[in-house]
From TrEMBL:
Database matches in Pfam families: CHAT, TPR_12
InterPro entries: CHAT_dom, TPR-like_helical_dom_sf, TPR_rpt
Oxidoreductase as UniProt keyword: no
TPR repeat start-end pairs: 15-48, 55-88
Protein name: Tetratricopeptide repeat domain protein
Entry keyword annotation includes Transport: no
Annotated ranges, domain CHAT: 356-669
Keywords: TPR repeat
Organism domain of life: Bacteria
Length: 671
């Protein structure tokens, strides 16, 4: 590329390539070689008058001198880069350089000067992200600057240690809140506004046409994959066609937003401050534990209605190591908290010790604050995969008889405190649905299901649906076997509700038509008892599996993907996803787990019960039957019923292992 740019005389491109080569050498640790290429790039940019390119290279040179310990030299180059970025109005470049200057000033002990620089950098980032119409691009951009927010938090907490009465820790909490789930916050705000009102009808017609094309392409995919004579070229072509349609659809959504009067008038909410969280979110019975995991240090903020305390924790890597060990331990049916007998010989000691170690790390400092009846957790990183219910209470963590946290506290999870603020605004004044319960359970997945007459004749077509789902199934490590326990579960739950206030879909009827029916909006509780699929590589392939075959034995699209869920209108009080790993998703820095939970929240549900791993079919049926009995017969709220169910399961030998009860968590509103 370098020789080609030189041959055609494109000196601007040549400078860019030289700068990139310098960055490669810099990443390899070859600092002097990097400086040589950067200096060549700098000379070329200056010669052709490319001031933006010059600023970029000056910034990079400053970084090299910083690594070499020549701090004053580094600052001089960074100041030159800042001047040029401001001169050419390169706001993104200015934000990067301000961050780098802040980093240098902190290393020199100039904390207040560093604070001024990082504040200016974050202000630019906040402004830039609001100018990006596409939620996906906004999300991607925000993930790239999470290090800036983490640096800001570190700096504020360092200042707090020096000046504990100046409120730096409170500002750090607000910055932590500002750094998480922002795209979800904005999507929930959009969901409350009809952004299609006043939009050019031609654009809306294009949207309908594209949706029809996507459905037709999906059907064509089915035909191609079901035909054993289909060639690899045909499969590649249909995949490319689908990807292009999805890209066109996303581009059209951006156009709709760009021309929508409602969208233009939309005011995105600012993340809540500490005082707003205390006034608007928390009650007298609740303590919020908000975690922020960082490369250098991690932090915990404990917030009550009238109290606030901050704590420094070990770095992200240390906490996440214990979290992953604990997660693996919980998926062993033979494991019992405080009783490793039976698995001690087959489970690494590090995993067995992870309960005490992780509990001590997360709660050791805050133990005396845990006096409320409810703990609300805003987790970060790998902690989002952990059921806090199964962690040990601080006072018992390092004993021979650890007590699960759920035994003393009601537990709730949130993507962020600000998210709950928006959810409460949405449901404020909303009429409760007239009917009580809608259940979907026991769909038909395969051609060898005995509910299908002459099942053997349709084998080739049904295999296609497996092929369409194979990538997600492979990533999720599950098989699409029938779940007979879901029928037992659903029938037991339905017996708790008057027949006039319920609707159900079993077998072939447990399909997309049932989910897409507007009548589903009339039900307070939506219960989906089927396979859930997590695809962390491609979140859009995550979803819920419905019936893959109709009564005639024809294959059908029975996969409710994440983007389908976003298009639903489900103003239910509660959505229960009695399925595998429905509480997980792709972790995107700054957003958290992007999965089914946020899809159903966008669709209108203020609270969900989801699962963090694949739970045994019979255990799930037992759990859900008890959960609904407590809610519907005894009048407990979902969070209360969930806790009581987990306590009941613990007391019985058959279900004592946390594998059977700890996976289920409540996300969202607890009231």
């Amino acid at each position: 590329a370098l020789s080609l740019s030189q041959a055609v005389g494109d000196r601007t491109q040549e400078a860019t390539i030289l700068d990139n080569i310098g960055s490669v050498y810099n990443a390899l640790g070859e600092k002097q070689q990097a400086l040589e290429y950067y200096q060549q790039a700098l000379s070329l940019s200056q010669a052709v008058g490319d001031r933006a390119g010059e600023a970029t290279t000056l910034n990079n040179i400053g970084g090299v001198y910083s690594d070499l310990g020549e701090k004053q030299q580094a600052l001089e180059y960074l100041q030159q880069a800042l001047f040029l970025s401001q001169a050419v109005d390169d706001r993104a470049g200015e934000a990067i350089t301000l961050y780098n200057i802040a980093y240098e000033e902190r290393s020199r002990g100039n904390l207040q000067l560093a604070l001024t620089q990082i504040q200016a950098s974050i202000e630019i980032i906040e402004d830039l992200r609001t100018k990006v119409a596409s939620p996906e691009l906004r999300q991607t951009y925000f993930s790239t600057v999470q290090g800036y927010y983490q640096f800001y938090i570190d700096l504020l907490m360092q200042l707090h240690q020096q000046n504990p009465d100046q409120g730096y820790d409170k500002l750090a909490f607000h910055i932590s809140e500002s750094s998480r789930a922002r795209t979800l916050l904005e999507l929930l705000t959009e969901a409350n506004a009809n952004i299609r009102e006043g939009v050019d009808p031609d654009l809306l017609q294009q949207e309908q046409t594209l949706n029809a094309k996507l459905d037709a392409t999906e059907k064509q995919r089915i035909e191609i994959y079901s035909n054993p004579e289909s060639t690899p070229a045909q499969k590649t072509a249909i995949e490319q066609q689908r990807q292009q349609l999805l890209a066109d659809y996303q581009q059209l959504q951006d156009q709709i937003r760009g021309t929508s009067p409602q969208y233009a008038a939309l005011k995105y909410p600012q993340p809540l401050t500490l005082e707003q969280v205390q006034q608007q979110i928390l009650d007298e019975d609740t303590i919020l534990l908000q975690y922020s995991l960082g490369r250098e240090n991690s932090y915990l903020w404990a917030v009550t209605k009238d109290g606030f305390t901050s704590y420094q924790l070990p770095p992200r890597d240390e906490i996440e190591t214990f979290a992953r060990r604990f997660y693996r331990l919980l998926q062993i049916p033979g494991y019992e908290i405080g009783n490793p007998r039976g698995i001690a010989k087959v489970v690494p000691r590090d995993n067995l010790n992870s309960v005490a170690q992780l509990s001590e790390l997360l709660f050791g400092e805050v133990a005396e604050q845990l006096t409320k009846k409810r703990i609300v957790v805003v987790a970060d990183g790998a902690l989002q995969y952990i059921p806090f219910a199964a962690l040990a209470t601080p006072e018992t963590a390092d004993t021979d008889t650890p007590v699960p946290l759920i035994n003393q506290y009601e537990l709730v999870n949130l993507p962020s405190s600000s998210t709950l603020g928006i959810i409460r605004d949405q449901i404020n004044g909303r009429q409760k649905a007239p009917q009580q319960l809608a259940i979907l359970a026991d769909p038909v997945f395969t051609d060898n299901d005995n509910r299908l007459k002459n099942s053997s004749s349709r084998g080739t077509e049904l295999d296609l649906n497996q092929l369409l789902l194979n990538r997600s199934v492979r990533v999720s490590d599950i098989e699409l076997n029938r779940l007979p326990g879901t029928r037992t579960e659903a029938e037991a739950i339905l017996n708790l509700v008057a027949s006039a206030t319920q609707v159900n879909a079993f077998d072939f009827d447990a399909n997309r038509d049932f989910i897409d029916n507007p009548q589903l909006q009339n039900y307070q509780i939506i219960h989906l008892a089927t396979h859930g699929i997590l695809n962390s590589e491609a979140p859009e392939l995550s979803g819920v599996v419905l019936s893959l075959v109709d009564k005639q034995g024809n294959s059908q699209n029975g996969f409710l993907r994440l983007h389908d869920i976003f298009n639903l209108n489900l103003p239910a009080e509660l959505v229960v996803l009695s399925a595998c790993q429905t509480g997980l998703g792709e972790e995107i820095r700054g957003e958290g787990l992007v999965g089914l939970t946020r899809g159903f929240m966008y669709a209108g549900a203020p609270r969900l019960v989801v699962s963090l791993w694949n739970v045994d079919d019979a255990a799930t049926a037992e759990f859900m039957t008890r959960f609904y009995q407590l809610m519907l017969n005894e009048g407990l709220k979902p969070a209360q019923a969930l806790r009581e169910t987990q306590l009941q399961m613990q007391r019985e030998t058959q279900w004592k292992s946390p594998y059977y009860w700890a996976a289920f968590t409540l996300q969202g509103e607890w009231n």
